[in-house]
Amino acid sequence: MDIVSLSSPSPIPRLYLCHQEARFLSGSSSTLLCSPRAITTYKYPILRTPHISSQSSLLGIPQKQRNAPWVPLCSKMEFCGPNYSFVQNKFLRDVVVRSELTAAGSAGDDFSIPELKIESKVRGAGFYAVTSFAAIFLFVLMVVGHPYVLLVDPYRRKFQHFIAKVWAKLTVAPFFKIDFVGLENLPPPDTPAVYVSNHQSFLDIYTLLTLGRSFKFISKTAIFLYPIIGWAMFILGVIPLKRMDSRSQMECLKRCMDLIKKGASVFFFPEGTRSKDGKLGTFKKGAFSIAAKTNAPVVPITLIGTGQIMPPGWEGIVNPGSVKVVIHKPIDGNNAEMLCKEARKAIASVLTET
Known about the structure:
Glycerol-3-phosphate (1)-acyltransferase, 6-stranded mixed beta sheet, 10 helices, globular
């Protein structure tokens, strides 16, 4: 196989081929060990192999350069770049050059884009069928018991959270297993606390509901309009929030502090949104300010595996796998900055081990 040198004013990945060998380089420049006459500039990647050398004029390769001496570059196939490097000991038979977007889109991601296998699609359809079927019947129980709950337990709403726990367990049981570590670190059910966790997937809510603690989540107001699920959230006492609305944020924080003072617990995802690559993001301090002002303990929780089963942006599939939930020891204090750093450190300590 002959060598073809590819370059472009734009940072399009360039492919250099040598005798049954290849090197993929990303960046704006590189150096080749070959004849100066072999260096040719092309706007788009071009491949030339022995079986199409007779048609090389159609590829835009001048006759003079086609006959230039070529120097082998490597002895193995290597993929090199700023974010990854691996060597594959295998002769190159077919080379496929994909678009610049594909080549640069997912390098370094911990959550690799899953293959859309029929099995994952079927599991995804089954997941939503099970959760919808269970939600319809359990929601009726919520509605029937809601007047009584408002009379005897208007803040914690333990009965409603028990139904939510049953719903979550019925949904996830056929599809993945949850392993809990550190359950002894959970505060007593009647102790108000601020729970915080990393956020990887749509499945995080289902996983956390199986803990059986009656904490109040915070959710976007638009989700409350969803049939059954949104209505159940309202009955559970989930706290609405309008993103990018400072007034709504202040009302949310005040309501959280009021709930804690009245004996209920609240739950936050301090990152604010789901992680796209599995890495722990920056924590916002709202949850920790509430804990510092109310003297409530902060309970850090690490979720592992939900992002691989249902990655962000791929909510229609459910891959095989298992989930691990690690409950860390509660953190006490009246300094929001310190609580934030300690909670993030505890959650990150487990994530780095996986």
